[in-house]
UniProtKB/TrEMBL annotation:
Region (Disordered): 1-44
Source species of the chain: Cyphellophora attinorum
Family note: Belongs to the aldehyde dehydrogenase family.
UniProt xrefs under SUPFAM superfamilies: ALDH-like
Entry EC no(s): 1.2.1.3
InterPro entries: Ald_DH/histidinol_DH (IPR016161), Ald_DH_C (IPR016163), Ald_DH_CS_CYS (IPR016160), Ald_DH_CS_GLU (IPR029510), Ald_DH_N (IPR016162), Aldehyde_DH_dom (IPR015590)
Comp. bias (Polar residues): 29-44
Catalytic activity entry: an aldehyde + NAD(+) + H2O = a carboxylate + NADH + 2 H(+)
Lineage, top ranks: Eukaryota, Fungi, Dikarya, Ascomycota, Pezizomycotina
Example of a GO MF term: metal ion binding
All residue ranges annotated as the Aldehyde dehydrogenase domain in the record: 20-483
Keywords linked to the UniProt accession: Metal-binding, NAD, Oxidoreductase
Full protein name: aldehyde dehydrogenase (NAD(+))
Gene3D superfamilies xrefs: Aldehyde Dehydrogenase, Chain A, domain 1, Aldehyde Dehydrogenase, Chain A, domain 2
Length: 505
């Protein structure tokens, strides 16, 4: 694993090693449970300085022509791609994901989004519209930058989420103060340094560190014009409420309890592969995971037998080994949380434990014995009222629910306050589209799961979010519209005119 240096608040283009700090906390390698470095918590003075730096940089950056901003951001893309493996190794150290995943997904998909927005603004993505209103008047619109924005990252895809937020923010001419999750903070300074090396002016991208109190102070700050948050529903609601009270723009990407519906004509091989990708990729720590798997009753034995066979293809172990495809959970508190859900499923919900449980994977290297490892777990014969089928677990825990007819499956799938993602697997594409049309979720898939390209706008329904990220729609969330009406008739239409005196007869 790579060695890393301590992390400090980053603003005005450099790491502020001499700045005031309200203390430190440790970044923990989840595979071993050992600390990797110290993180200096940003004080309120640090946050103020970072925001001041962003505010000072805003005027120049926002007035830089989009084509010039694009060239700078594309240089950052080149640097990200050149340093992919170096950055991926840091992500593995920080998150516990296998290098086979971080090197092919995390940095790559973040760079894709930055490249997409850099090209979009270079090709007129920030252009407004104009139209003739009448013979003497026309209207034009412009898309104006917002100002200083706050980005609050999540711990499961650290550098990807940092890029998903900063790419459209900076492309639109805004500046950002970014706070990574205190659980996985190592990427933030590296990204700031890459932006600086690419030519992003000092103060355009800044980093503060800490837990909820730092995020709370940042998002409530009067100079912050927008808050983009990724995290759990309960926290997101608090952040959104606070921001709305200050009339700030918000984008919220929150949690899910997403349904995956297998149709009765689906090849069982495809159904099982889809369910495994939707539950065990990234050790199940994905907000869009399809953790409620609805399977036709007639497919029960075939589905479960093949699933048990393919569970053996999940390989925990040396995170640097390219054959390893399963890592630990991200932290001790999260490990304890997932264990408590598994125990509740067994002891309280009385769900049938098909495989897994609260133990560690077999044959782990001795260096990993104190890490936060957990075996992939599957509960079957689940009901809709169970806690494990109602609440987001955010771990490698699949719940299988059987259904008799498709209308019933769709109704049960929608019976949740969350609406982040949903998907369907089947041979009849027309039927699949009909199911997708009925599912209440903002991100949906047919015969696949999890892919989220830069071109595809993604966002949740219901309590799963506000606004979207990525795609053309994602850029609209980082600008404000200005409409201008131009009257060219040579006089001002007015009702305040002098009345003519009527002559007496």
């Amino acid at each position: 694993m790579p060695s890393v240096s301590d992390r400090y608040t980053f603003y005005s283009g450099k790491s502020q090693t001499s700045a005031s700090s309200s203390g430190t906390f440790k970044s923990i390698d989840p595979s071993t449970g050992r600390p990797s470095c110290s993180i200096h918590t940003s004080s309120t003075q640090d946050v103020d300085s970072a925001i001041s730096s962003a505010s000072s940089a805003f005027r120049s950056w926002s007035s830089t022509p989009p084509i010039e901003r694009s060239r700078v951001l594309l240089k950052a893309v080149t640097l990200l791609r050149a340093r992919n493996d170096e950055l991926a190794a840091i992500e593995t150290l920080d998150t516990g994901k296998p290098f086979s995943e971080t090197s092919t997904v995390d940095v790559v998909t973040g760079a894709d989004v930055l490249e997409y927005y850099a090209n979009l603004i270079a090709s007129g993505g920030l252009n407004g519209e104009s139209f003739r209103l009448r013979d003497s008047a026309w209207v034009y619109t412009t898309k104006e930058s917002l100002g200083v924005c706050a980005g609050i990252g999540a711990w499961n895809y650290p550098i990807q989420i940092a890029l998903w937020k900063s790419a459209p923010c900076l492309a639109a001419g805004n500046t950002m103060v970014y706070k990574p999750s205190e659980v996985t903070p190592l990427h933030a300074q590296l990204l700031a340094e890459i932006y600086r090396e690419a030519g992003v002016p000092d103060g355009v991208f800044n980093v503060v560190y800490g837990a909820g109190e730092v995020g709370g102070y940042l998002t409530k700050h009067p100079q912050i014009q927008k808050v983009s948050f990724t995290g759990q529903v309960s926290t997101g609601k608090k952040v959104a409420g606070s921001a709305a009270g200050e009339m700030k723009y918000v984008t919220m990407e929150l949690g899910g309890k997403s349904p995956l519906i297998v149709l009765d004509d689906c090849d069982v091989n495809i159904a099982v592969d889809g369910a495994m990708m939707a539950n065990f990729f990234s050790t199940g720590q994905v907000c869009t995971n399809g953790t409620r798997v609805f399977v036709p009753k007639a497919m029960k034995s075939r589905f479960e037998n093949l699933l048990l066979e393919k569970i053996s293809y999940i390989r925990a172990g040396d995170l640097q080994n390219p054959d390893t495809n399963f890592g630990p959970l991200v932290s001790k508190p999260h490990y304890d949380k997932v264990i408590s859900y598994i125990n509740h499923g067994i002891n309280n919900d009385r769900a049938k434990l098909l495989t897994g449980g609260s133990g560690k994977p077999k044959n782990l290297p001795s260096t990993y014995q104190n890490g936060y490892w957990l075996t992939p777990t599957v509960f079957t014969d689940c009901t809709d009222s169970m806690k494990i089928t109602q609440e987001e677990i955010f771990g490698p825990v699949m719940t299988i629910l059987y259904y008799a007819d498709l209308d019933e499956a769709v109704r049960r799938a929608n019976d949740t306050e969350l609406g982040l993602a949903a998907g369907v697997f089947g041979k009849n594409i027309t039927r699949c589209h009909d199911v997708i049309w009925q599912l209440q979720a903002g991100i949906t898939w047919v015969n696949t799961w999890g892919e989220s390209p830069a071109e595809m706008a993604v966002g949740g329904w219901k309590s799963s979010g506000v606004g979207v990220e990525n795609g053309r729609k994602g850029l609209e969330n980082w600008v404000q519209n200005k409409s201008t009406l131009v009257e060219m008739g040579g006089e001002v239409p007015t009702v305040f005119t002098k009345l003519e005196t009527k002559a007496k007869l």
